Amino acid sequence: MGIAVAPDGSTIYVTTGRGRHVVAISTDTNEVIGSVQVGVRPWGIAITPDGKTLYTANGPGNDVSVVDATTLEVKRKIEVGQRPWGVLVLP
After folding, report:
1. pTM of this prediction?
2. Residue 20 maps to a domain
3. Domain span including residue 7
4. How many domains does the chain have?
């Protein structure tokens, strides 16, 4: 559904929509290196400029997940309006 690339280019993060996950893929090996369940239909995704935090817009869940990009753990969820589909992180 959505794609974010780590600032150093080492990892690509992909949201899976109905799969409820973010999948991390190594750009060196093209292999899945981890995943985390983030919420209902994660659509949009963004990563902070330092590469430490991911945000996913979880459409029907009406929330945004905050994910530690290193450990792939959901740190918290932020309630937002109806059906968020995108998220943007600015420096």
Report:
1. 0.94
2. yes
3. 3-79
4. 1
